[in-house]
Amino acid sequence: MAEAAAPTAERRARLEAGILDAHARGDLADLARLYAEAGRQEHAAARIDAACFFWTQAWISALDQGDLTLARDLEDRLAAAGRMPPPA
């Protein structure tokens, strides 16, 4: 995953709207993608707690919809931030 730029108010509003819409539609793939993007943006802004919150939500959604590639990437990110053990 490419690193994102720090979030602007407009980018955050678009992500929030997208996340709410994906929740309403029950679209786990979109949720995983959008939460991962929100995490990357928060990480770029050095807001590690927020980044890890979003990455955790993305990880859960990725696992729920069977996207193991994304789930493994998110596990690596969370492990690097000290939020879970390194993947085996």
Describe this entry's structure for a reader.
The chain is mostly helical and 88 residues long. It has one domain. The chain contains four helices and no strands. Helices cover 74% and strands 0% of the residues.
Question: Can you give keywords for this protein?
Answer:
88 residues, mainly alpha, 4 helices
State the total count of DSSP E strands: 0
- Write down the domain tally: 1
Task: Classify the beta-strand content into a percent band.
Answer: under 5%
Distance between the termini: 20 Å
Main β-sheet description? none
Amount of helix: over 70%
Low-confidence stretches: none
What's the mean pLDDT score?
91
Counting H and I runs of at least 4 residues, what is the number of helices?
4
Principal-axis shape equals flat
Question: How do the SSEs run, as a string of H and E?
Answer: HHHH
Report the C-alpha radius of gyration, rounded: 12 Å
- Structural class call reads mainly alpha
